[in-house]
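FAQ: What does a ligand-bound record look like?

Like this one, built around zinc ion:
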Amino acid sequence: MTTIVATNDSRRLQFLDDYCPRCNPAGHYADSRVRLATLTAPTSLTWHGGRRVVCRYQCEGCGHRWRRADLWDAQSAGLAA
Ligand SMILES: [Zn+2]
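The answer part, i.e. the structure of the complex:
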């Protein structure tokens, strides 16, 4: 089973955000201004029914697209109890 959650409502997925690796390679270690500017909410989630959720992102600053499969699990995404 595959569930794809695509959304234009970025607020709904805001809590699954990640830092653009191109604009902010330091991630959590960057200073707060950089972190705020590079924080990106996912454009979609893909869930195959297990623990892992694949999040896709597109940076608003540089347009870079990336995906993370290791960052969030289904529970934090609200997909599994
Ligand atoms: Zn970027």
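Follow-up question: can I read anything off the structure? Yes, for example: The mean pLDDT is 87.
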